[in-house]
Design brief:
The protein has helices at 12-25, 44-61, 78-82, 108-115, 145-158, 178-195, 210-218, 232-235, 241-248, and strands at residues 2-7, 30-38, 66-73, 89-94, 120-124, 134-137, 162-168, 201-207, 223-227, 254-257. The protein is built from nine helices and ten strands. The protein has two domains: 2-124, Rossmann fold, CATH 3.40.50; 134-257, 3-Layer(aba) Sandwich (Rossmann fold). By secondary structure, it is α/β, with parallel strands linked by helices. A ten-stranded mixed β-sheet has the order 3-2-1-4-5-10-9-6-7-8, with helices on both faces. Helix 2 (44-61) links the parallel strand 2 (30-38) and strand 3 (66-73).
Length: 280
């Protein structure tokens, strides 16, 4: 059974996150911990009402899921993530074009993804299920191997196409090395085929800004998956270019998968060619 930690505070974005969790729970046996995090001055009665409303809605949407609620005092995202160390997946909502409004204050959706040790999914307000592909950004340096596995699993579960996207920024006077980049994609396709032989896989190979390429393809996607590094400036709270583009204008849920959270698919990951930018 998958253990899902759902951040919920009653907003339109939170409802969208709840609906996404409910849709997933129809196919994946799930235990959902619906957690409301609030600042200390907010009414306890109102917080309990919000949490109970969310739990009731989730139980109606996903009758097979087990649901528990928690109301916690503290600050996002630390209080949410510290509340549950056994979650397999963290889900949170985001207001389209205004991530600062989501889950209290700050750039909370991306901060949750940066700090989470397990895959985290950011669901945009107004989300509805659609038949597009599962898009995964893959750079071949090892940081996106777990993201590739997560994306392939989601595509297989939902019977959707897996679209592997490999884009890289070319220095003005630098070599293109396109053959090396194509080899990265070929290895990824082989890894997926070994584990999911019936899965339909397509790919995009492009010498362009990875953020722009993914943002363009995400418009028709059912889900977008990227990896994270969890070190350096990003882990300190700065927002990665790719994640920033996607969470600011996304119509599909964005899942960020830490490299250590899942075992890579059964194929050796090649070293990244020079010039490949990080996925987050």
């Amino acid at each position: 059974m998958e253990h899902v930690l759902l951040g919920f505070e009653g907003s339109e974005a939170s409802i969208a996150a709840l609906e996404w969790v409910a849709e997933r729970a129809r196919h994946v046996p799930s235990h959902v911990t619906l957690t409301t995090v609030a600042e200390y001055f907010e009414s306890e009665r109102e917080l309990q009402r919000v949490a109970q409303h969310g739990a009731d809605l989730l139980r109606r949407r996903a009758t097979s899921a087990t649901v528990e609620t928690r109301v916690l005092r503290g600050w996002m995202p630390e209080t949410l993530l510290d509340s549950d160390r056994v979650a397999d997946l963290v889900v949170i909502g985001s207001h389209l074009y205004a991530p600062v409004r989501s889950m209290l204050k700050g750039w909370v959706p991306l901060r949750v993804s940066v700090r989470s040790a397990v895959p985290s999914c950011i669901v945009p307000a107004g989300w509805h299920d659609r038949p597009g592909p599962v898009v995964v950004g893959y750079d071949g340096d090892g940081s996106a191997d777990a993201a590739l596995r997560f994306a392939a699993s989601e595509a297989a579960r939902t019977k959707r196409t897996l679209l592997i996207v490999h884009a890289w920024t070319v220095a003005p006077l630098g070599p293109r090395n396109e053959a090396e980049h194509r080899a990265v994609v070929d290895r990824a396709i082989l890894a997926v085929a070994r584990t999911y032989p019936g899965l339909h896989v397509e790919h995009v190979l492009m010498a362009d800004d990875p953020a722009l390429v993914l943002e363009s393809l995400a418009r028709e996607a059912s889900l977008v998956v990227i990896g994270s590094h969890h070190h350096g400036a990003l882990a300190g709270g700065l927002l990665g270019t790719v994640a920033w583009y996607l969470v600011g204008a996304m119509a599909a849920p964005l899942c960020v998968v830490p490299p250590e959270s899942l075992t890579p698919l059964d194929a050796p990951a090649p070293a990244a060619p020079a010039g490949v930018t990080a996925p987050v």
